[in-house]
Description:
The chain has about 400 residues and is an alpha/beta fold. It folds into 2 domains: about 5-185, Flavin prenyltransferase-like (Rossmann fold), CATH 3.40.50.1950; about 195-410, CoaB-like (Rossmann fold, 3-Layer(aba) Sandwich). It has 13 helices and 19 strands. The protein has helices at about 25-35, 55-60, 80-85, 95-105, 110-115, 130-135, 135-145, 175-185, 220-230, 260-270, 310-315, 340-355, 395-410; strands at about 15-20, 40-45, 90-95, 120-125, 150, 155-160, 165-170, 195-200, 205, 210, 235-240, 250-255, 275, 285, 305, 325-335, 355-360, 375-380, 385-390. An 8-stranded mixed beta sheet has the order 12-11-8-13-16-17-18-19, with helices on both faces. Strands 2-1-3-4-5 form a 5-stranded parallel beta sheet, sandwiched between helices. It has a two-stranded antiparallel ribbon with strand order 6-7. A hairpin with a 5-residue loop joins strand 9 and strand 10. Helix 1 runs parallel beside helix 2 (about 55-60) and helix 4 (about 95-105) packs across helix 7.
Amino acid sequence: MxxxxxxxxxxxRVVVCVSGGIAAYKAAEVVRALVRCGADVRVAMTxxxxxxxxxxxFAALSGHRVLIDLFDASGEVAHxxxxxxxxxxxxxxxxxxxxxxxxxxxxxDAVAATLLTVTCPVLVAPAMHTEMWEHPATRANVDTLxxxxxxxxxxERGELSSGDVGIGRMAEPDDIVTAALTLLARxxxxxxxRVVVxxxxxxxxxxxVRFIGNRSSGLMxxxxxxxxxxxxxKVTLVSGPTNLPPPPGVELVRVRTAEEMHDAVxxxxxxxxVIVKAAAVADxxxxxxxxxxxxxxxxxxxxxxxxxxxxxxxxGAHPELRKPGGLLIGFAAETExxxxxxxxxxxxxxxxxGADVVVANDVGSSDSGFNVPTNRxxxxxxxxxxxxxxxxKAALAExxxxxxxxxxxxx
Length: 411
Ligand code: CTP
């Protein structure tokens, strides 16, 4: 990755949250470096953190009062004030306890309350003993937070405060600052762009209560929509039925069938700078759907299928339906884990559907695809294929948007 210019931090509001671990003293270096890059840094500490570093250190480095007590402000709701203007929150160090509280949405102190209020990207630098990092409870909490789009830097393997050697050592301040600058650089690279994302599976009715569907949960598309909105895009999410809450700041258009999804996408396509077709659209639907519930006594029904319109292929073949210069992104769901095979499929599908980018992902393994937080994927563009490997859907969404932002910037 190209070196990040420190100037991206100029004038940007960064909240640094410090929790109570030995590594808290290194947070002072992170604050100092971010201030040097021109960031407007505000610090919140847990009461335990103040046992390791005095708040005066952070006040002097940041030039602002440090928030420790939720109730100490003069009538202001201080954590809300702190969280609202934040463009990035950096948690340094994050103890196992703080990760647990973040995962469960606690708000009992200034740090937890701030982290529950921010809507900006969150960067976390964990530091703890190996056993605590490896405990299933911490693993589950990290998983939950990653699924919500939290970015982790470290921990690393090395000498721990106990004198043991193992994983759990906090990432070096330099690496934390680089990760913070990377997130700030991503910041608003889709500002002013209109992005349409389709998500979830479609349901093709057999009768009023039965349908042909598929296992898509919608998580990948919702994660892309959330990430695109965070990076400044105006996002329309065209979604099949899912159990997911709509991402904040995203316009949600609910559809059920492939035909409804087609109509909804075609209606917004002329204004879209980017169309991401992450939905698992049914390829076939019942030719006829009974207006009344089919009765069991009538015996097994014969359901004849007919093809649906391939929305992606139609948009690929008819550029006049889309905004000139707009990007078309497709997904390819494959029961294939080998990156070379995924790359071949992605490239073939890119060509056959007339898409600018195709993400081929593995839906045949237990750690990738439907109803799991991770995906194994390859991204194909005109520049070639990129093996993203097995990553969280949040990380895959960011990687895809990095590609999209790069292509838009080139155009
Ligand atoms: N797609 C679509 N409309 C359809 C079917 C699929 O827009 N009626 C889109 C999906 O949203 C996805 C891409 O096409 O972006 C690939 O879908 P997939 O089902 O994996 O591929 P198919 O082209 O249907 O080929 P096959 O299933 O035979 O691999």
